[in-house]
Amino acid sequence: MRIPLAVAILFVTTAISAAPPPARLLTASFSGGCDTYTIAVTGEGLNQPNPVVSYNITLTPRSGEPMTITDSFVVTPEKDGSFRKTVHESWKKFEYTLTRKYALSGVAVLVSDRTPLHTMALTFSPVKLNCSQRQ
Fold first, then answer.
1. Phi/psi of residue 73, each to 5°?
2. What is the tens place of the pLDDT at every residue in 46-85?
3. Mean per-residue pLDDT over the chain, rounded
4. Long-range contact pairs involving 63-71 (C-beta distance under 8 Å, separation at least 24)
5. Within 13 Å, how many C-alpha atoms sit on residue 38's CB side?
6. Of 72, 83, 133, whose CA–CA distance to 106 is shortest?
7. DSSP 133
8. 42 to each of 12, 31, 39, 45, 105, how far by Cα in Å?
9. 3-state secondary structure of 8
10. Which long-range contacts (CB under 8 A, 24 or more apart) does 29-34 make?
11. Strands, DSSP E only, in the chain?
C-alpha cells in the first residue's frame, strides 16, 4: 500500500510538532543587592527524575581575586513539564560580607540525576554592585 506524499508529509509534520520540547531553561535571572539576592528560573520539557537548578555567581572586584558562589535548588515540574521557581538567599550564607564594587556574572544549569540538561547565562539586574559605602 502506497501512502500519498502529501499525507506522509502531514503525518511527519504532526508527529514532530506533537513531540514535547526538550528539558531546558527559558529564563534565569538574578536581582539583588549588597545583603541578599534572588534567583528566578522558568523552564519547559521537564520529565526527568530529581530535577535541580544549580547556579554559580562570580563577584569580580576592581582589584583582587574574584569570589564565586555555587548553590542549587530543587524544581518541581507541572504536568506539562513547565516549571518556575524563585529563591532568595543572603550572601552571608556563603560567609561573604560585600564591601566593595563588583561586576557580576554567572550561569544556571538544569540538572537531572547529576546529568546537565541545559545551561543558560544568568541575566543580572543590576550587572554591578556598589557596596563600597558600607565600609
1. -150, 150
2. 999 999 999 999 999 999 899 999 999 999 999 999 999 9
3. 89
4. 64/100, 67/96, 69/94, 69/96
5. 8
6. 72
7. G
8. 30, 15, 10, 11, 19
9. helix
10. 29/122, 29/123, 29/124, 29/125, 30/57, 30/104, 30/106, 30/122, 30/123, 30/124, 30/125, 31/124, 31/125, 32/129, 33/129, 33/131, 34/91, 34/98, 34/129, 34/131, 34/134
11. 24-32, 36-44, 51-61, 67-74, 83-90, 101-112, 115-121, 123-125, 128-130
What is the pairing mode between strands 24-32 and 123-125? parallel
Measure the CA–CA gap between 134 and 89, rounded to whole angstroms.
19
Class of domain 20-134: mainly beta
pTM value is: 0.82
Cell of 123: 541575566
Burial 99-119 (b: 16+ CB within 10 A, else e): ebbbebbbebbbbeeeeebbe
Name, in order, each residue with C-beta under 8 angstroms of 79's C-beta and a sequence gap of 6 or more: none
Does residue 8 have a pLDDT over 60? no
Residue with the three cell numbers 508527529 = 15
Span 27-38, pLDDT tens digits: 999 999 999 999
